[in-house]
Amino acid sequence: MAYSADQAAFQVQERLKALYRLVHDIHEERQRSEHNLNSIEKAHEKISAEERVSPHYQQQLKNLYTAAVSDAEQEEDLIRKALTKVNEIRAIRNERRIQARNAGNKETIRRGALMKMLQSSAQTLPLWVGKPGEKAPPLCGAIPMEASYVAKPGDMVAALVKGAEEEENWILAEVVSYNSATGRYEVDDIDEEQKDRHVLSRRRVMPLPLMRANPETDHSALFPKGSVVMALYPQTTCFYKALVNALPATATEEYEVLFDDPSYAEGYSPPLPVAQRYVLAIRDRKGHTHS
To answer: Which residues contact 100 (CB under 8 A, 6 or more apart)?
Structure first.
């Protein structure tokens, strides 16, 4: 949906108001649940002191645990609604940015600011939080995209492009458009110093993850240690072949990777941190991914 500046501002403000109310409701729900949890703890202390569980305490504990589960479910529902509002605000801001670019008002970003923006983009990428037994979806962490998936305008991708000397490199780029008739993308080099636009086939474009995987709950959505991947070299906008040396242990941590580097005796660089958003399955020239 296309928004004017005033419409976008209004829509964002409406969502911020809703988000404020939801955060307030979450706080109240958290206080209510803490009261129930304290009651459960006190009931267990009494049972421990008496060294037996009477029918009275059995029923009391059952009621308290039922209430605690209900409280947790209500809090989860409120948090998910709040996250939906955050994602809606992100989508509106991104839509406005794309409109400005299409109107020729693309903002020039200095390299230092670009590096900070890319880091912030990785840190604030939505975290997948599934329900018990629910598997991480495509484009969450290391989970590949579905075969029919098409990246949307404004999405970040890795793009295989030819340089000035005909060498091919994977660069960080932004989708401008996709032509379903030709199966080709138009992408812009994210590096402002290049300002290049490329028309590429689908096999030369790899969408970046849309969500981070939580290592504590969705470990299978991460690349295993020893996997050969493509990773964005720190402080650059280019992807290079690398080896996963260590996985993130928490949702806020990064991979530790070893980049191919013949200047070192081992053939690899020292361990370097790379965010989940910028670690991809390696792809050959025919468009097949490997790990």
So the answer is: 106, 107
